[in-house]
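Predicting structure from sequence has reshaped protein science. With that in mind, we have picked out one protein's residues alongside their backbone shape tokens:
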Amino acid sequence: MIAMFWMFLLTFTVSEVMNGYCTKGNQSDICPPDVSTKVFALEGEHALLSCRLHIASTPLATNNLETHGFTITWFREIHKNDAVERLGKTGRIVVERFLLGFWPATVNDTGRYFCSLFNGTHNITGPNECLYVTPIKEECYTEELTYKREGVIGSSIELFCPHMEKYKNNPEDTKWYKNCQEYIHTGSSLLFHKLEKENAGNYTCKLTFEHFGGQYNVTRTLLLTLKESPVGPKLIYPYQERIEVVLGESRTINCTAVAGNEMAVQLNWFLGNDAVTRCKKTQPVCKDFRREEIRNNKRYIIYPLMFTQIKEEQLNQFFNCVLRTPSQMTSGYIILHQKDNNDVHGVVKSLISIIVVFIVVAILCVQFNVEIALCFRDVTGKDETLEDSKEYDAYVLLLKSNETLLSAEEEEQFALELLPGVLEKQFGYQLCIFERDVPPGGSADDVLFYINKCRRLIIILSKDYVDDECSSMYELMTGLHQVLVETKIKPILIELKPINSTKLLPESLQLILKSKKTVKWKGNKSVFKHSYFWKKVRYLMPAKGGQRAKKSQWFCETMSDSNMHPSCTTNPPLKIKPN
């Protein structure tokens, strides 16, 4: 009898609840917001509704209902004729105990559903479950089909994918996207430790799984809106202010505080422990009337401190502005200092500072002119090689002596391997090397022809040239003529080995040695690509755009002793005797 009483009470209560909540209406009133549980889905995705009987008026748990002989039936309300449609257990819409699954959901499935339990005597009807199915567009969500979430800037929040509790096997595989496109996270929830303004937006969680050989998606979209955190009372000005004044002048200083949402805010000026008096007639210092202002939706309190005539006894005194609320007290102060009328010392100090800065800048420009010029090229992308009809950036001339041709292996390796390896492969220059680029059997006229096609003339000089007659004399004379007489090409002289005496050199070559067009090889110090040697060579070479984008693995960052690392080149390492 007790059991029958409870079953009757349960049936009566749920029926009354449903009669009071659910009213038939048109399609726009399909799911009243204050009654139904809403589930959103995109067309073609899987949707799942739950038979929700765990309400306060239900005396039996869901599992106990089945043990008492209750069977579950799902219905869909048809609004055209106020009828209901019974749903079966097979086909695209499947009843799975207390769940109703759509494999997949279509737009026509949008509607109001409910479950009913019957044991032959008693009937229990569950609350409405409303399903919204929207067509798939370019966006992955529509404004009316998003779940709303609100956060406070500066606080933390954790977003959970709504109505995903039935998918217990793989919730950690849920992928999160912002505004449909930007992938940001994989997991059952999305945590923000400290919200910022840019975190606002639409967040879509998407779970993909397989079911009887088919692949289905479940998508939910949450609209996260943010609001400013409530601002408490705060003193804005003054903090610890030292103010220069002139004796006899008048001055007004405003104590300013933001009140926030707190109404019981007190603001006052003090001199020592005594409050400054309100202004009456003529007083040297007093406080004016307090006023309030609204700025950017914030309430500010302003309390002016007025000096009608600044006197000497007011200097170096602490005038405190105190902010009091029921929970805190903060203060700031001002100190008046007499302004120095004789400001000559300040002007002199300023001039000296400017001169010192100018001298330091000038020294730095002279000392680091090469680095500054290279940096300027990289930043501006300056290119001197455009539209000058030149094919090569530099002609490489190796001065060799007749008697030391067989022992010039180091010089040739420098000219034919190291120099082009760095300038061409590392920095993108194009060199013309007679021994490499001119076809065998070239005549003397070929030398002039190729020199005229170049922008620079690189002369590699070593001490062996001074001791004997030069076998490259024609190339040298032709190049120097183009440099000094025709002025069609600029020289770069590389002193590969130290020269003890320059008197045996031609006068034209001696002039170049004395100029700033000379670069000296320093042995081990010059091997690294960031050494001053290579910076100076690049400085003397024409500016060429896009050098920063030129990358090469030919030149290694690490070296051993005075040789290049074996992994840098397949040729024997260059061995230059140190100075």
